[in-house]
Specification:
Mean pLDDT is 80; it is low at 1-28 and 406-410. The chain starts with a helix and ends in a 9-residue tail after the last strand. The protein is an alpha+beta fold. The chain is globular and about 85 Å long. The protein has seven helices and 22 strands. It has a 22-stranded antiparallel β-sheet that branches. Helix 3 runs antiparallel to helix 4 (320-334) and helix 6 crosses helix 7.
Length: 468
């Protein structure tokens, strides 16, 4: 017999053994990981319940069927069934080289198929995903949700152009990129009408793939929306003008950092457009949270989730006194780390003029024992507040003219409004609450160790004893 033929036959036989053996190994690994995932989800989301789970396995493939319910009530109320078809490696479906390939879809119950088909315009699943699992455990998933159109009997209309995205997991990170072409809503009743359109939404970023709480994972994310248009009118309040908003180039970002046991988060937002007849050349916002003790924060979130679950299961509210006592313990554990929330910047440019403000609130130098003090006593001794604003004087004049005269301010004579606003501004400047700098008005405020200052001048709050 030809030795080459024997060698070839042996190679084919060995390859066959390797494929079959590999399929058995990767099949077992896939089953263990897939069946264990719902338990991990439920640990962080207790109001999600596993109603049923089945795993039917053969040598080269398997089918995993999972039925979930959410919220209070019987576990059979409005369940969602997910079906996963798994092709085992090392040659899943004999199409690629991987540990497994998983196709996921939501299974629509027979009694709801007609309604879902009318919603999405076909008899396909309202959610599908395709996942490739690497031999090292990394995954790459592409998913999609079809377009949906809904016309309510009461006249509301919703048109969603679907959503698709990619999620990659591996190397300690999760990368995601999700997009939707657009969304629109219109509704009308005897009191108001609303029309809203969103165009070209994209969300992308990365987060840590750690085993800890979802809320504590470091990462970054970005949000982009090409345009948002909204028109709203109300007949419930006579004389109230229609609201027309047209924003473009909407962008937002967030960054979560975990340094040791301290969590911080920074968020940013920017946009431009028009609000009624006012052109907004630029709008910028940045806010941050600093020095939040992560273990305490995680315990607080879990306590809220567990309390909600307990109330759900017992069909009765949890004692507010017990809950407040537990929350006070968590609050006390946060204080020694000097937590702070800040609106780092809120800036608006209108017709070439720019206004900006910022503030921060926090607690500094407090101990866990200080948390036992009455709230006002704690804030007076350990609380901190800093803020400043700089606005065009014309804006301030308009605001004072519009709101300074109470409910009748909007109907007042413009000349009388301007005169009243100038009188009020002059008084605030003379009293030291405002500083006039050309066409701008500015003010700075701070509160620390029980002392309030405005523009560097000590102020005694009403009812407080004078400072020594």
């Amino acid at each position: 017999m030809n030795k080459g033929l024997i060698a070839a036959a042996a190679a084919v036989a060995l390859a066959g053994v390797a494929v079959v053996g590999g399929a058995a190994v990767t099949g077992s690994q896939a089953m263990k990981k897939i069946q264990g995932a719902p338990a991990q989800w439920q640990a962080q989301w207790p109001l999600m319940k596993v109603v049923d789970q089945k795993y039917q396995k053969s040598l080269f493939s398997a089918t995993h069927t999972l039925t979930l319910s959410f919220g209070c009530g019987a576990t059979t109320d409005n369940p969602i069934t997910i079906r996963q078809t798994i092709q085992h490696g090392p040659l899943p479906g004999f199409k690629t080289l991987a540990a497994a390939v998983i196709d996921t879809e939501i299974v629509v119950p027979d009694n709801e198929k007609k309604a879902v088909a009318a919603l999405i315009g076909s008899d396909k699943s309202p959610f599908t995903a395709h996942t490739v699992v690497g031999f090292g455990g990394a995954t790459s998933t592409s998913f999609s949700i079809p377009s949906m159109n809904f016309n309510a009997p009461t006249g509301e209309k919703v048109a969603w152009q679907g959503l698709s995205g990619d999620v990659k997991q591996g190397g300690g990170k999760i990368l995601y990129d999700v997009a939707s072409p657009g969304f629109s809503f219109s509704g009308k009743d005897e009191k108001s009408t609303v029309d809203m359109k969103l165009a070209a939404l994209r969300i992308h970023g990365e987060m840590g793939d750690s085993a800890g709480s979802f809320w504590l994972r470091p990462g970054t994310g970005e949000f982009e929306l090409v345009s948002l248009d909204m028109n709203a009118t109300s007949s419930a309040q006579p004389g109230m003008p229609p609201m027309k908003v047209a924003l473009s180039q909407l962008k937002a970002s967030a960054e979560n950092k975990l340094e040791g046991e301290l969590l911080s988060n920074t968020g940013k937002f920017s946009a431009k457009g028009t609000v009624n007849d006012v052109r907004v050349d630029k709008m910028e916002l940045q806010a941050s949270i600093k020095r939040i003790h992560a273990p305490t924060y995680q315990r607080f979130i879990q306590r809220v989730i567990d309390t909600s679950t307990a109330a759900c299961d017992m069909k009765q509210p949890v004692s507010p006194q017990v809950l407040m006592g537990q929350m006070q313990q968590d609050f006390a554990a946060l204080l020694p780390h000097n937590p702070e929330y800040a609106l780092d910047k809120l800036a608006v440019e209108i017709d070439g003029k720019r206004g900006e403000m910022s503030y921060s609130v926090g607690v500094a130098g407090a101990t866990a024992a200080d948390a036992q003090l009455p709230l006002m006593a704690l804030l007076m001794t350990k609380g901190q507040l800093r803020g400043e604003a700089k606005l065009p004087s014309l804006w301030v004049e308009k605001m004072l003219g519009r709101f300074g005269g109470g409910p009748q301010g909007a109907q007042a004579d413009p000349a009388a409004q301007a005169e009243m606003a100038n009188v009020m501004i002059t008084k605030f400047v003379n009293d030291g609450y405002l500083v006039k700098d050309g066409e701008m008005l500015a003010s700075k405020i701070s509160f620390e160790k029980g002392q309030l200052t405005v523009n560097g001048k000590a102020i005694t709050p009403p009812g407080a004893p004078p400072q020594q």
